[in-house]
Amino acid sequence: MVMEARHVESTALAAPQPWTRVDLDLYEITWDGVVAGYIEVVGHVFVALSGPRYDRAVEVRQALTFSDAVDALRHPAS
Questions:
Q1: Phi, psi for residue 56 in degrees, rounded to 5
Q2: Is residue 4 included in any domain, yes or no?
Q3: Is residue 58 within 8 Å of residue 50, measured between CB atoms?
Q4: Does residue 52 belong to any structural domain of this protein?
Q5: Does the residue 22 lie in any domain?
Q6: pLDDT tens-digit profile of 44-67?
Q7: For 63-72, what is each residue's pLDDT tens digit?
Q8: Model-level pTM?
Q9: Looking at the 3D structure of the chain, how many domains does it have?
Q10: What is the 3 state secondary structure string of the chain?
Q11: In which domain, by residue range, is 65 found?
Q12: Which one, of 71, 73, 66, lies nearest residue 25 by Cα?
């Protein structure tokens, strides 16, 4: 068996996650220290809510994967 060593960028390992778990089914998403929105887990669906305040955030997408919901907050529709 041949094992291949691969170079991994050290910045990729040290990059902070853009999300923080706020509650059992709620995550806060931040970009550059600014709150972009929230992701709420409802059953098997991830609901992306755009806005800096949870009580005023607006639903922008429902996704089947967490990463798709995060991308919806990274690239909001115009």
A1: -125, 5
A2: no
A3: yes
A4: yes
A5: yes
A6: 999 999 999 999 999 999 999 999
A7: 999 999 999 9
A8: 0.77
A9: 1
A10: CCCCCCCCCHHHHHCCCCEEEEECCEEEEEECCEEEEEEEEECCEEEEEECCCHHHCEEEEEECCHHHHHHHHHCCCC
A11: 15-74
A12: 66
